[in-house]
Amino acid sequence: MTEEQLSASTSSSRRLLRVALVGNPNTGKTTLFNALVGLRQRVGNFPGVTVEKKSGQFSQGPWTVEVVDLPGLVSLAVTSADELITFEVLCGLRADTPPPDVVVLVVDASHLERQLYLVGQVLELGLPAILVVNMMDVAQKEGKQLRLDELGRRLGIPVIAAVAHRRQGVAELREMLKSLAKGEKLPPGIDRSVLPPVIDNEVARLESTLGELIFEVFRPGSAAAKKRQRVSPRDTQHIPLGSGEVAGATFGPGDAFKHKEVAAALGEVSAGGWLDNSVRQNFARFLLRRCLLDPPGGLITEVLLPELDRQVTAEVFAARARLSAAGIDLATVEPDFRFAWVRELIRDVVAQAPVPTVSWSERIDQVLTHPWWGVLFLLVAMLVTFQAVYILSNPLVDLLQVGLGWCSGQLSHALPPGIFREFVIGGLLSGVGTVLSFVPPIAVLFFFIGVLEDCGYLTRSAFVMDRWLAPVGLSGKCFIPLLTCFSCAVPGVMATRVIDDPGDRLRAILVAPLMTCSARLPVFTLMSALLVPADAALLGGWIKLQGIALASMYLLGIAAAGLSAWAFSRTIIPGGGGLFILELPHYKWPDISTVLFRVLERLKLFLKLAGTIILGVSVIMWILTNFPRNEHLITNDAEVQRLTQLVERVASDSPEWEDLVQELELARLAAIQRHSLLGRLGRAIEPIFWPAGWDWRLGCAVLASFPAREVVVANLGVLFQLADVGTDIPEGYLHRIRDKLLQVRWEGSDRRLFSWPAALSVMVFFSLCVQCASTLVIIGRETYSWRWPVFVFVYLTLLAYLGAVVTYQVASALDTWWHYAKI
Amino acid sequence: MVLLEHLKPGQRGRICRVTGHARVLRRLAEYGVQPGAEVEMIRPGCVSIIRMNGGRLCLRGSNHIAIFVVPDPLGEEVSCSREGAEPGGDEQVSPGPSRPGQAKFPRGPVSPPADGCPRSTGWPFRWRFRWGRRQ
Fold first, then answer.
1. Which among A113, A117, A324 has CB closest to B97?
2. Are A275 and A92 in contact (CB under 8 A)?
3. Which residues, 6+ apart, have CB-to-CB distance to A40 below 8 Å?
4. CA A621: distance to chain centroid?
5. What are the chain B neighbours of A334 within 8 Å (beta carbons)?
6. Who among A75, A339, A473 is closest to B121 (CB)?
7. Which residue out of A333, A581, A584 would a mutagenesis test of the B interface target, given it has the greatest number of B Cβ atoms within 10 Å?
8. Where would you tag: which of A13, A461, A617, A769 has the fewest CB atoms within 10 A of its CB?
9. DSSP of A46-95
10. ipTM of this predicted complex?
11. Which of A84, A45, A49, A46 shows the shortest CA–CA distance to A784?
């Protein structure tokens, strides 16, 4: 970086204002964020953890305001991974995200009393803050009168009334942020010491005993900061620089920037390195106070403290012991005193109309949270959602297949025949096709889930489902993640972060792969087509038998998930039936841009995670089924030899010649596979597959689907030579595969391979097995251990194999019995 | 003094005692479920919906929580001293720092589950399903 560039970058970053949005869940934070920054946002993960990081910018002239949307939380006494991130960002403990210059606190006007609790906690940081009181319309409809100017005067911070989904108050907030970016100062907040003085004394005492030790965590290059900086900041564009004079205070006069070493240090500077002393002292005091007040099982004690110096931990524990001895109950002292402060704060600020009107939300809830009607509505909503997924996404998938067919046709003309063309078409293009074919269903599903979420229904569904989930050791909060798993387990497992009970969360993660994800659909559709004829129906054609087969696989997955969760709660992860507490937000019309942003985020995430893996697997599969190519073995293959002789005998202008050549080509492919790595492995371990009714080819297709089950139909196509490279793929594709598969025989006999017991056992296997590397990877990342993914893989594979064997044996016995009964 | 889940729909009361593990107590308190708070039952049941602080909460007490409420008989103001909440008073409302193996309150159902809700996870053998009552 040259000197000019450096000075340009510093001068531009001097006009950068960092803003963090903090608030309870369901306060319209994300809507406000979208309204503020519009399309200029990017969504990623906080490095090292799979917590979504949303940041965006808006600017006017040379001033830029960067907004970060932090995960919602109820209190800074953090108990889940999401909440810990918010806490770390606020304190400047994350190397990848500098602490904000301004905090925008978002509260729901109708739940003001409870949500001011968090506001009080955050204000103790001593950062400039703006309070946005959102959903003013709902509060007004409830007959609440809010004197926000008085509230602002008491708190000493600006207060803005807003209705984010109607963009009210957004302009005001944006103007305020812009003027702050221009260098305007917020008035300093008034003293808000609300806790008993004993605690403040302890904090002061800790501060003096620990001295510099507590600052270690904020200092760039210190051992503690390095420990926290597990992932170094990647993009140097993200040079953490606060507002102008702060940066100057840390790095000294401008000539310091002349040195390249400083420039390098800037890139690596740890969070907090640019903090001046007074801010740093505030942060340290705040951190110590939170350490003292951390609840049992809180993550500050469990995650943050162990990373600090041992002396800090010892001193904190000693201080806690002293406070307990002084008669302070650390578990409840904070809520007691802080709520007392909140009540004092909102006295005369919130006036309730004498007769509170029953809001629309409550009227709707009388039906939607009703034990019978609520469940019924939930079922209907789910049915509509999944129907929409099929109806809306199928044409798109077909269109995609047409496009891919066209592409492969063009490529097969353009490329010279040979191993490279085979690789591009058979390995690469089919891999891309598999990845892309998941995009439409995921988009539609997340659109519908997004609408339900944004209008506030998903919270009700958690309530309705809790009574069904609690007995098996899960909780209502597990419902939404598990529902998401019906489209794909990867976002589903990630969504379990909202579950605050660690045991519930782990159990939900462990059973998540049992939910029938959309990747299982192709194989279910194919196998159910083998199982029952397409036109078999009950009740005069209203209920298709194939549909019943499909539905029973979904039910099998759900039942297995319920039983496993129950078994886990009784054995390895005891617990369950813990606390379940949720605030019911008000219903509102969904904000379409929020929903669309959400869909986009999910798609990006999917393409990034699954896309790379599925593509990789397709390529590896292709290599495994095509190499080594021993021409000698292939030409000596009995079938190939027979066909070669036939082709030689028949005249090249006779009508059968074309067919024979094609058959020879397929036989060659079969021979290549037989002698490929995968083929050899499959034949070697074939006896394992026999009890489940599979031969080595079917076994190989199943084995090869372990990295990603999406590819199983393609694998079947490869292994049973069904692939018609480059010609009309969509038109009756499944139908033709079905016809061909029905003719497949066991090698060396004329017994049909895809008898109905075998097809059923394949379905059962696929419904229970976790054949998805992405899911295992994400489980590993969410549980911070490699043991859980290994455990999930082992237990589900065993379960699936046993299920398949039992199904096949029982079904075959039934088949035989039925056969004799007919005679 | 009755358990919260025994309030009838529409009945109001004042929380006077919350017992359970300290961690759960803290979470409850952060939602405002703490001694002295007024509640109104909206939908009783295994998972109940209550109104407090102008908002609505849905809440399932688990095996390890009991929320005791002094019901409001005829809309009268019931005095429930917050002194009870202070540690050191006669009534230990919130157990102090929890020590494993020294549970102040018995684990398992605190009172017989008269409403038949699944207070233990003995499903499916001991599980009786019960729909919420309507007024």
1. A324
2. yes
3. A56, A57, A58
4. 27
5. 26
6. A473
7. A581
8. A13
9. -TTS--EEEEEEEEETTEEEEEEEPPP-S-SS--SHHHHHHHHHHHT--S
10. 0.73
11. A49
